[in-house]
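stuck on this one:
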Amino acid sequence: MTVNQLSPVDTMFLSSETPCNPIAIAMLWVCDPGTSPLGALSYKEIFEFLKSRVEADPGFQCKLYRVPDDIDYPYWVPHTDIDFVHHIRHLVLPEPGGWKELSTLVGSLHNRHMDHSRPLWEIYVIDGLDGMKGTGPGSFALMFRFHHAFVDGKALMELLDGLTSETPVFEPAELPESCLTEPEVDGLEHLIIPWKRGLKRWQAGMTSVKKSWELVSRLTSGSRPDQLGVPHTMFSAKLTNDRIFDAVSWKITDLKAIRKLQQGVSLNDVLTAIIAGGMRRYLISHDDFPAEKSLVAISPISIRHSEASEEGGNQLSMMLISLGTDIANPVERLKKIHERTTRGISLGEDVIGEWNSAFMALMPITHEKDFRVVLSEEKKEGVDLSALLSPFNTTITNVPGPRKTQYFSGAKIVRAHLLANVFEGAAVTHAITGMGPLISLNVISDGAVMADVDFYIKCMNESMQEYRSAAKEAKN
């Protein structure tokens, strides 16, 4: 295992945490042990399986190392002395042990801050799912939670891939060779690091100039945004310490049928259009609908190459997209979203990713956290800086999951849900993933902003039904 330095984007995720907003990404699995050899799994058996897999996977065996005086970006360093009792925790749902109890618990767990002196991951084994529909006796849930500085969505999937198999039969994990626990930084390094940092900043400056020119050229031509600014809504709020989570799953076959409404649209376009329709319904019902301007979403774009599939960290770009919430006709909205994402993905892959990394690298390391703290302070003189400065209303992130059903220690994974984090001034996030024949839309929001998440899910289902009906009508 090697020592890897955090990128400027990784460091941004690390330093942008606030007391009310831990920055984490998580995966929730609901598992049915009826397919396991003995038809059941005890917590001890689950714990030992997890322990064996973590010990065999170098991806779990690193922790944060900060350079003295923060004169350079931190490092991920090898760390094999893992306190498994701390990282793997056992919880039991209150009765009746259904989805409501599970989603409430998961929402609260997702708002926990991690101990930065330990590896930045945690696993929750949740029993007591007696009231969960679609699962058999002894079913349990697993929540894998990682700091976002450690992995992005694709890296998360690569890490969890080592815990699953495509059949209930699995091979024992092979333990790797031991490795060092921590690097040493001597006096010579203190002299070299500032020089290396200066060289990196010079290179970042050259890249920033080049990509800034490309960005301006693209924005003044075919990639220019449809609107300037974002409307202010109830989601343009300051975050509290409360998080809620809920989800809905749909068949991939239904989503593929909706794709046929417009030539060339992707599943991501369809899901974005459904989300836009759901948000439109929700805001209209709350008398908070901005009719003149569309809501704007920020969407990560993976720029992780195949040869870097086993590397952690964040290799992503971003695109801002007008969601077409000001368009009442669902088919026209889908068409417009497809046009916008086509431009946005190209711009994000070609320009934004490198430009953003270069810009982050130019920022003084000691000032990054200070900048984030300013944005998260209490309102001053009646002005909420986070709401005014946020260039988007919501986040939509899509991390494709395996198309085949997966098994964990012989137990069938019957549901998979992705959790991301919310942002100041954009207090609702939509995280999309899937497994087997289903795709799940997962909603994470600030509880003080959205007290009726079940109604929000209802609005999403109504939007989905609207598109399903449109697809059926077009077919006939």
